[in-house]
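[Meeting: bench + compute handoff]

Bench side (C.D.) handed over the final construct sequence. Compute side (W.E.) agreed to return the predicted structure before the next meeting so the bench team could plan truncations. Sequence as handed over:
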Amino acid sequence: MLKGFKDFVLRGNVIDLAVGVVIGTAFTAIVTALVNGIFNPVITLLFNADDLNSAGITLREKAGDVPAVVLSWGSVIAAIIQFLLIAIVVYFALITPMNYLKKISFTKKKEEEAPPADQPPSEIDLLVQIRDLLSSQNAAQRGADDHPPYDSGAPEAKPAS
């Protein structure tokens, strides 16, 4: 039972996934700080709001014990910007280099698999070609034997008995 668990944990996919989650968490903290420190203040300045959460439409003012109802589109814009930043960085920092490396390795693998152009054919290739030529010649000859030459209409000479 412990051996199975050990095999599961040491499998490459689990390690890669764990590294991805840790890096993603650290990267999310960087993007959140970037959005909160740079983009949110710019958005609040553009929309003349006290903070980004107050950028929106007030549907109902606060009345006594009843809280105000605000459609806070400022926080939605911040979340969209945060998502786009994460998507851009993941694409350009991870996806694009990986696709490039895959393309290079695929091209290199194809070059290794392809035989050199100036290499003469092997003995097996030559024997296969000879077999195919003989086979086609035999088929042509059998076809010629099956069909007599053009009949001129003259009676055939019968052999003497």
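W.E. noted at the follow-up: The helical segments are 2-9, 12-46, 73-113, 123-146. C.D. will use this when planning the next construct.
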